[in-house]
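Why predict the complex rather than its parts? Because the way molecules touch one another can change local conformation, and only a joint prediction can capture that. The input here totals 251 residues.
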Amino acid sequence: MALLEIRNLHVNVEGAEILKGLDLTIEPGKVHAIMGPNGGGKSTLAKALVGDDAYEITQGEVLFNGQDLLEMDPEERAREGVFLGFQYPVEIPGVSNTYFLKAAVNAMRKHRGEGEIDAMEFLELVRERAKRVKLDETLLQRPVNEGFSGGEKKRNEIFHMSVLEPQLGILDETDSGLDIDALRTVSEGVNAMRSEDRSFLVITHYQRLLDYIVPDVVHVLMDGRIVKTGGKELAKELESKGYEGIDEAAA
Ligand code: ADP
Ligand code: MG
Ligand code: MG
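Output of the joint prediction:
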């Protein structure tokens, strides 16, 4: 069974149709990249998948592990194992990074019928994962993302993902604004999580990230639809030729 199956998804934002019949299937263990020109609807897809209520689904269906994802509220989707960086408020005043994560980890455990995580075990997990993405330990006690630099927020996003261990990790433009060292670290954090039953949807405008997170499948999203699908070489082709001509060729 596919991990994620999107069929004929139509999404309106502020009354305008942005996704216009998008189809996408992701098998367990696969990394799919979505590329495409600005304004094509990439972030809209990410937001619709996590249940942001500004994004109105007008048609289509989304199955996650065979279950109707669109029926679930955002918290349920997170507990089921769908993760999007920044699906939570960008800054959470007064709530420390570790406190927030502990609550999220325990919500996921409860959902699986498990008890709360042991305090020491949690501390070790958090330290190990922070080290993995080279997140400064002082950021663990600070309120979530408050006063974090752009790069620290991105690292924190990958840090959260590696603590929460979702089944589907959605990364929307995680590479934007990162210098090459940070890009490498963040990518290593993602690559360390790749496994047979975990999948990723990596949204990026640029090919560069995909040198580090090598995708199994690359899609081009333009004007609300997937217009082309290929292997990792498609990303290189887009880098040299651009998006012009892709939609005509696909049509
Ligand atoms: P991409 O991520 O591919 O650059 P987006 O999904 O962000 O594209 O945007 C697609 C279109 O939807 C754009 O025309 C954008 O202006 C519009 N849009 C997206 N989100 C909103 C929103 N919250 N309010 C109004 N318009 C939006
Ligand atoms: Mg349609
Ligand atoms: Mg976007």
